[in-house]
Design goal:
Number of domains of chain B: 1
Number of helices of chain B: 11
Largest interface: A-B, 41 and 42 residues
Radius of gyration of chain A: 20 Å
Strand order of the largest sheet of chain B: 1-4
Number of helices of chain A: 12
Strand content of chain B: under 5%
Order of helices and strands of chain A: HHHHHEHHHHEHHH
Order of helices and strands of chain B: HHHHEEEHHHHEHHH
Number of strands of chain B: 4
Structural class of chain A: mainly alpha
Shape of chain A: globular
Shape of chain B: globular
Number of strands of chain A: 2
Helix content of chain A: over 70%
Oligomer: heterodimer
Distance between the termini of chain A: 13 Å
């Protein structure tokens, strides 16, 4: 039964992959659509990993893009350096994979450092500390000339393509799903539901809270690395507070604690952003109404407020799609 | 080291601290009463700055620059800050008051984004920075080695008058007594016949009005305003409130002045340190004394 369920997820992933590849080969999906799909997949990684921290473990991180920035800059520096030393390295792909994973580890280290104060802090204080942490990372990156300072890290080789991003996304979903539905995940959920009670039954809450941050940050670093090698630039402004808030919106719109919700929300909100951008361009250029792209974010903000006011649990609530559930009820 | 702690830096620090203090008071009052970190508070400050900008040009048509005009602009900036705060509370926070605290926090982030992007999306305001007019003619005075402009005196005087007024309101009036009662125990206060919702609205009104006044002072002192100007001062004022002990009014003021002086002195030493000092202070405070200087240590309820 367990194997069958895992197989189902792999099959769903494979079908998605084949459909996109076929549509792209036929020409229905042009390069523009592929860019949006790639971005959506990166956002899936970021949203699912944030959901592990905010949704499953019940902590609150407002600096998720700070972790992504660490991954992006670390992996980007490695590949850029190697690319400069030998432009046609025979093992480009291997270097790239190693760089992405190393970026993830650097981000995990950052997650460990920020997870530590979380031992003593709860809720809103934790939000402020993680926000401050994200800002500190951004400030530091802005002031290191070796990684471009305020210009950003330029000339990152373009290694990310649909296949690579897809494989990393699928891997992230499988690993986080397995973690959430293992005994570790159930322990994390017990901390979310009632930290005091789970401490009283002998759970080392500190350990699991830090673990949530470390794993979440690791995957955020991977997402950041993929993004940097897709856009070929890592810029401090990409990783500011509002980028983190955007990921947060995805998690809350999708449903806190629901991986399915995060995946659906990451896709639909990325497409919504592009749709709104196209709509706004059309209104401005064809109809002649002078409106700016800021309206996209206005709509996002209203969406977030409305979801919180009228459907606090998000679109999916805590439900999961059946292909993401390893084990149904016993018996 | 002399240049870092020179009298000039201290004066600049006090001036910045006065602005932070007015913002921090709103944070600390709202937190004291509804236990919510109002993320949008920095944006009330921005709204105040734009209200001051607009009302200056509106009234400058038939009034010359000077104290009278400055007073009208101050009143309107405070009114705008207070109004936006009360509206935010009514539409975004009130429906969530008895839901988990994190949903209010996420809503507050949403309100903050809404205000910032709506202001940059409205064509009359726009995303680009604007120069703030000199509402009062600028004069410079020399005290020893420090140069002091009349703006420093205005900033400190406005902040002092508002803070004294607030202390009087809270300590000496029945309304203030009701506010203190609500912050201690909402349910008991309600049983004593206090209209808790009205007291919460009043708290948002005062906090927003103070942020609005701070917006005017910041526009006057650092003459550039833009829709995102509230983010960083808002965060730093919040950290000042945490440093002083969140919920404590004298704590917020003391924390704000410490923060202002620390920031100007750190910036004089190294600009990177100046940008990051606030967060360093926050992390140190939270690790060593999370309740802040004047905060009471509260035990978790079991």
């Amino acid at each position: 039964m367990d194997k069958l369920k895992s197989l189902k997820l792999l099959m769903a992933g494979l079908i998605f992959y084949l459909i996109v590849q076929i549509l792209s080969a036929v020409g229905v999906l042009n390069g523009y659509f592929m860019v949006i799909i790639n971005r959506s997949l990166v956002f899936v990684i970021l949203a699912v990993s944030l959901n592990l921290i905010n949704g499953v473990t019940g902590q609150f991180s407002l600096g998720h893009m700070g972790f992504a920035a660490v991954g992006a800059y670390a992996s980007g520096s490695i590949t850029t350096l190697i690319f400069k030393l030998s432009p046609h390295h025979p093992q480009d792909a291997v270097v790239f994979l190693i760089a992405i994973i190393v970026g993830g580890f650097f981000a995990a280290l950052a997650g460990f450092l920020i997870g530590f104060p979380s031992l003593r802090l709860k809720g809103d204080y934790l939000a402020i500390v993680t926000l401050g942490f994200g800002e500190i990372i951004r400030t530091i990156l802005n002031n290191i000339p070796a990684v471009g300072g305020p210009r950003g890290l330029l000339g990152i080789p373009k290694f990310s393509n649909f296949t690579v991003i897809f494989l990393f996304t699928l891997g992230t979903i499988i690993l986080i799903r397995n973690l959430v539905q293992s005994s570790i995940g159930r322990t994390m959920i017990s901390i979310r539901e009632n930290e005091l009670a789970s401490e009283l039954v002998g759970v080392d809450t500190t350990k699991y809270k830090v673990l949530g941050f470390v794993v979440g940050a690791f995957f955020a670093g991977i997402g950041g690395g993929l993004l940097a090698h897709l856009l070929q630039i890592a810029h401090p402004t990409q990783y500011g507070f509002y980028a983190s808030a955007l990921i947060l919106i995805m998690v809350y719109v999708g449903g806190i604690g629901s991986l399915t919700g995060s995946i659906v929300a990451a896709f639909s909100l990325t497409f919504l952003t592009e749709g709104l951008r196209v709509g706004i361009d059309w209104l401005r250029d064809t109809v002649g109404i002078p409106i700016g792209t800021e309206w996209t974010m206005v709509i996002y903000a209203v969406l977030l407020i409305l979801i919180m006011l009228y459907k606090t649990e998000g679109l999916m609530g805590m439900r999961e799609s059946s292909i993401l559930v390893i084990k149904e009820k016993q018996g | 080291m002399e240049s870092i702690f020179s009298p000039q830096q201290i004066v600049n620090g006090l001036q910045l601290g006065a602005i932070y203090a007015l913002i921090a008071l709103g944070y600390t009052m709202v937190y004291g009463i509804v236990r919510l970190i109002n993320f949008a508070h920095g944006d009330f400050f921005m709204v105040g700055a734009y209200a001051a900008f607009g009302s200056f040009f509106m009234f400058n048509v038939f009034l010359p620059r000077g104290n009278g005009l400055a007073f009208i602009v101050l009143i309107l900036a405070m009114a705008a800050g207070g109004a936006i705060a009360v509206l935010t509370d009514h539409f975004a926070y009130k429906p969530l008051r008895y839901k988990p605290k994190l949903s209010s926090l996420v809503t507050a982030i949403g309100v903050s984004m809404l205000l910032e992007y709506a202001f940059s999306a409205i064509p009359m305001i726009g995303p680009s920075p604007r120069g703030f007019p000199e509402i009062l003619p600028k004069k410079m005075y020399h005290f020893g080695s420090a140069e002091v402009s009349n703006y420093v005196i205005v900033d400190l005087a406005v902040a002092a008058v508002l803070m004294i007024g607030l202390t009087f309101l809270i300590q000496r009036t029945s309304l203030g007594k009701a506010m203190r009662a609500v912050s201690q125990d909402k349910d008991a206060a309600r049983l004593m016949g206090i209209n808790v919702d009205r007291i919460i609205s009043l708290t948002f009104l005062i906090g927003g009005a103070f942020a609005g006044a701070a917006g005017l002072l910041a526009g006057l002192t650092y003459p550039r305003i833009q829709p995102y100007m509230g983010i960083l001062p808002g965060l730093k004022a919040f950290i000042a409130a945490v440093l002083g002990g969140i919920g404590s009014i004298p704590g917020a003021v003391l924390g704000a002045f410490i923060m202002g002086i620390a920031e100007t002195c750190a910036t004089a030493y190294n600009s990177l340190l100046g940008e990051g000092i606030a967060f360093v202070i926050l992390i140190v405070v939270l690790l060593l004394r999370p309740s802040g200087i004047f905060g009471e240590k509260t035990a978790d309820k079991i």
